[in-house]
Amino acid sequence: MQGVIVILVFSGLFAVQTTLAAQHMIGGSQGWEESVDFNSWTADKSFKVGDQLVFKYSALHSVVELGSETAYKSCDLGTPVNSLSSGNDVVKLSKTGTRYFACGTAGHCEQGMKVKVNVVSSDSTTVSSPGSDSGSDSDTDTKSSHGLRASIGYVLAVGSLVVGLIWAF
Ligand SMILES: [Cu+2]
Q1: 144 or 68: which carries more pLDDT confidence?
Q2: Signal peptide: which range, if any (predicted)?
Q3: Residues 68 and 145 placed together within one structural domain of the fold
Q4: Is 161 exposed, middle or buried (0-12, 13-18, 19+ CB in 10 A)?
């Protein structure tokens, strides 16, 4: 029986770990589509090192990662950093900095099918993004969403501990 408790506690701790690293479905439920306004989609989100981006799309689209703000602004797809086309692509955010993505289908980037993601340190409680004009607002956003994810993990951990104890007796 103690074995069961140990397993449940560890699964709870694992839940804390996984909830701290978020997976962001690009474009929300609509996915990677021309109809989504990606600027407003990213506006209320914070992206941290260790998080993942998921691009879901039909064969009409693809994902091209661009190397610079200039290429992103002008939709210059000539020198991509990376190209993806599975329709269900996961991109890991392994370090801080800005990542630029556009659709590789002719004309789609110009129509607004592009997204820019600012990746911040996973352990920072305050966001320092040079060049950003929304300093204090994004600070509070980051803290609250981080706190929410942490508390979901905490509830799962306590929940599995309680279930473990009920099982044991
Ligand atoms: Cu497209």
Answers
A1: 68
A2: 1-21
A3: no
A4: middle
